[in-house]
Amino acid sequence: MGLFQKCSRLSLRSSYMWSVCPQYSIAVTARETPDRALIVHWTQHRDVHNSRRLGANPANPSAAPPRLPFSRVTQEDLSFFRALLPGRTITDPDLLKSSNVDWLKTVQGSSDVLLRPKTTEGVSQILRYCNERNLAVCPQGGNTGLVGGSVPVFDEIILSTSLMNQVFAFDNISGILTCQAGCVLENLSHYLEERDFIMPLDLGAKGSCHIGGNVSTNAGGLRLLRYGSLRGTVLGLEVVLADGHVLNCLATLRKDNTGYDLKQLFIGSEGTLGVITAVSILCPRKPKAVNVAFLGCSSFQQLLETFQCCRGMLGEILSAFEFLDASCMNLLEKHLKLTNPITECPFYIVIETAGSNATHDEEKLHQFLEEVMTSSLVTDGTVATEATKIKALWSLRERVTEALTHEGYTYKYDISLPVEKIYDLVQDMRRHLGGMAKNVVGYGHVGDGNLHLNITSPSKDFDLLAAIEPYVYEWTSQWKGSISAEHGLGLKKRNYIYYSKPSEAVALMGSIKAMLDPKGILNPYKTLPDNIN
Amino acid sequence: MGLFQKCSRLSLRSSYMWSVCPQYSIAVTARETPDRALIVHWTQHRDVHNSRRLGANPANPSAAPPRLPFSRVTQEDLSFFRALLPGRTITDPDLLKSSNVDWLKTVQGSSDVLLRPKTTEGVSQILRYCNERNLAVCPQGGNTGLVGGSVPVFDEIILSTSLMNQVFAFDNISGILTCQAGCVLENLSHYLEERDFIMPLDLGAKGSCHIGGNVSTNAGGLRLLRYGSLRGTVLGLEVVLADGHVLNCLATLRKDNTGYDLKQLFIGSEGTLGVITAVSILCPRKPKAVNVAFLGCSSFQQLLETFQCCRGMLGEILSAFEFLDASCMNLLEKHLKLTNPITECPFYIVIETAGSNATHDEEKLHQFLEEVMTSSLVTDGTVATEATKIKALWSLRERVTEALTHEGYTYKYDISLPVEKIYDLVQDMRRHLGGMAKNVVGYGHVGDGNLHLNITSPSKDFDLLAAIEPYVYEWTSQWKGSISAEHGLGLKKRNYIYYSKPSEAVALMGSIKAMLDPKGILNPYKTLPDNIN
User: Which residues bind (R)-2-hydroxyglutarate (chains A, B)?
Assistant: First the structure.
């Protein structure tokens, strides 16, 4: 009992507030052992002060809380699922393996059943049944999340959208696409490009991630600077609520002010309030001309000045302004054998333009490049207009995450800060950690003020971890930043929410959860902190 | 009792669902007469079938419901307010007049007190007191709404944001503005233009409307096509909840995925869930070049083809594509003495470009104009690049609403439809009404699929109204449109919500209202329908 001094669960009696029930879940867990929850990432348990701010396990706020008293899946349940989804109720442990572990292989669940419905009605029947039986459910898209949000923590039933991959409609006048939640982002991109449109979002995981998962996690990615967030581009959603009711908000209108915009509740709530089954989204025209420039800067200050100059001179054709530091480049060369196309620099920039007139775009880009080269803001650079070369330059930015996985163990932080502060955190962290870390690297979306801070060590190192956290969160909070800019909170970051949100806001989130999912069956242990007071 | 056969109110006992309490409120109302509610717009009461779909008063779903049993303002209450807001507690009936009636002079309340706090703390103390005393409150910004959402229906206390007009901060690197809710949109525009930025929204009412009201109503306006909706550009809000608690979500980050995005609840909920006291908003750079073209088309089909061509050729510099029909032009000439700058046509288009390179923009615009003139899509046109001429061309679109007010009585509809359908509704309505209406005119935002359908008669005409409604809503619903694209529902449209939203969605809205404002004191009788089942 020493380890988890407090735990919280959704109260069944109150629909308004989560209530903290000390010891109750622990007692249940103890009775129902063995629980097979295993957080590979976190295993050290130290005796430190119980901090209310950091939730159930103050020594290790990312660790899984005790299993909540959900029912266990019985043979009778399996019979129900098999009758409902013949051939699509998976219980073979080998087939379940990849769905029980996240992409980073840091969170390991132990679910015994994976359901693969094809229709909204199927999802509805599953949730109605699970809600009645008090069975917990983990909705899963492409399972590419980085915060342990898309895998079970214990034995939650995995509800996969992988067979829900139909495009319902595309209107080539308005550019509005309507499709099922399980469509893979890259497949949608190909579908649209054939029709002279593009998706308003793009990210490294596009080959696997599902649009439903993108919406559930409010994915940002590489095009946010230009096309804005999913909160603006998603026009409609169909969602199945915890009790199986289908909420049809699948509008295909650019403007609709009839009542509260319910779909916003489900964007970014990581499957904890409902399961998204279909999406309608506003897609931009495919640009007639795309150019990518890869530039080098000798300081972050020069990089920022280049960004300012770029926004002024490229204006409406600027579609991405990304950066990586020299340490990232070293890892790309070392592990992925990618070649640095320019001379070595402390900082590299990827600039993309997308416009409707190739001549105009090239002229703007060349004027900009001339300006930043003659003023010595940029020390070297290369430009690509041809698709293969564009892809090669982009891969230098997109494959940093992959390169890092070869380094041993990676501690990942996804931070929003005022743009002029983003690299200060990397430099300060290097000073702070001294020789403890193998690498402290920074890359990300300058245009959005979004830093991906990654710290590597040969293997898991809890002394290193203790030096990073909560230091990184305190640093972020001090500058009124966000401790999760685009990755979400999932399992790993849930208890750090108070560094970015006041307690009144978190309490209200708990009320919303309790209203929509009173039994708490949807993606438990995710997003919201263990203790909401 | 015949008139209002059912009425609903927020249940005090349940936080989960609105409950329908037949007759209860009626009884209270009868005891507490005189109630001075007067809906100027609607006075006819006919004996028709009670339609559940259309709420409390099926003959006249826009009419005010009976007064709910809120407390009446006492001398003791006034003493409290005067101590809290010395000199800013207005009870002089002459001074209250303009705050009791909407801009269109169609909804008339009878509030006896107008409060003008300067700070969030002031708003908090007012709401805490009103919630405890069960006093209803009508939040009011610039009072420019068109659906009766910003004026009291009975004796609700008017809580004005007019003295909350401070700019807190502007970051000229990120373009993020943070200000109080009562800042007038045009003042913010001037403030930003001096700093080489612009507001991401612009609308005809800019000289009076408040940014807090814009956000509360999710105002669309003229720049939505380019800069997207407030759901994407508003980065943070500070909101005072019904019980006086301050919810600080005033982030200034472009990306933040830490938990549910609570601010979205308050965008577009018309002050029924909380009072917005401060806003942070992402502002675009001021474009270096602006051009406006005013064109004529001989059919709506040609107008649509011009739109398609325009999107392709102007691409990223297109910032507005608006239209008005010949009837609108006649009214502009007749009542406002504006001059049509081109030859007479059935349809007129206002196209605005905004870009970073004047030469490129002019070249794109000229190429586009050459294309649409030589292909005869457009019959005549004029272009302005100079500010005064740009303003003059824009006024032809912006002042249509004003011209209509001179026509006698106007029935206003703000409809979203698939863009190729928007003028069909105008033509069909003309056929349907025959000689009953004086004018049936259409104008609006083609780029957003948003039609402003306006029907005039010399004076209020209930036979005409009965011919328009619910016909117009049924027509819209048949094409899966929105019965309120950007104006909101307010008092006038609240009971028509079911034409655009399924009952499950409306019930969930009721649950959210009950959770955040269990006594229902915030802007009662607005947004949600009288009967939620």
Answer: 397, 401, 412, 454, 487
Complex prediction ipTM: 0.89
- Together in a domain, A378 and A422: no
Helix, strand and coil content of chain B, in percent to the nearest 5, comes to: 35, 20, 45
Check CB contact under 8 Å for A482 and B450: no
Q: Which of A257, A269, A303, A419 to mutate to test the interface with B (most CBs of B within 10 A)?
A: A257
| Known binding-site positions of A for Zn(2+) | 445, 452, 486
Report yes or no on B530 lying in a domain. Answer: no
The tokens for A214 are: 């993108």
Confidence at residue B464, expressed as pLDDT on a 0 to 100 scale: 97
> How many Å lie between the alpha carbon of B321 and the closest alpha carbon of chain A?
14
Confidence at residue B279, expressed as pLDDT on a 0 to 100 scale: 98
Residues B512 and B481 in one domain: no
Rounded mean pLDDT, B468-494: 96
Question: What's the pLDDT tens digit per position in A193-251?
Answer: 999 999 999 998 999 999 999 999 999 988 899 999 999 999 999 999 999 999 999 99
CATH number at residue A308: 3.30.70.2190
Number of domains in chain B: 4
Q: Is the pLDDT of residue A21 over 70?
A: no
Mean pLDDT across chain B, nearest whole number?
89
Residue in B253, B257, B504 nearest the CB of A488: B257
Q: Is A30 left (phi over 0), alpha (psi -120 to 50) or beta?
A: alpha
Is B511 at the interface with chain A, CB within 8 A? yes
Residue whose entry in the numeric block shows the structure tokens 């969605």:
B505
In the predicted structure, residue A72 carries a pLDDT above the cut 60: yes
Domain assignment of residue B245, given as a range: 167-282
Same domain, yes or no, for B381 and B411? no
- In this structure, are A211 and A228 located in the same domain? yes
pLDDT-derived band at A63 (thresholds 50, 70, 90) equals confident
Enumerate the residues of chain B whose CB falls inside 8 A of the CB of residue A61.
none
Specify the range with the lowest mean pLDDT, choosing from A196-200, A387-391, B42-46, B446-450: B42-46
Say whether residue A93 is in contact with chain B using an 8 A CB cutoff.
no
Residue numbers in B near A514 (CB within 8 A): none
Q: Under an 8 A CB cutoff, do A314 and B356 touch?
A: yes
Does residue B75 form part of some domain?
Answer: yes
d(CA B198, CA A311): 15
| Cβ–Cβ contact A248 with B under 8 A | yes
Binding site members of A for (R)-2-hydroxyglutarate: 397, 401, 412, 454, 487
Q: How far is CA B66 from CA B34, B493, B504, in A?
A: 12, 16, 25
Domain with residue A437: its CATH number is: 3.30.70.2740
Cβ-proximal residues to A229 (8 Å cutoff; 6+ apart), any chain = A218, A220, B232, B255
Domain end, chosen from B231, B248, B282, is at B282
C-alpha–C-alpha distance, residues B397 and B403, integer Å: 10
Q: Is residue B491 part of a domain?
A: no
Q: Out of A249, A282, A315, pick the residue that ends a domain.
A: A282
Report H helices in A434-501.
462-468, 471-478
Question: How many residue pairs from chains A and B have C-beta atoms closer than 8 A?
Answer: 267
Rounded to the nearest angstrom, the minimum Cα separation between B210 and chain A is 18
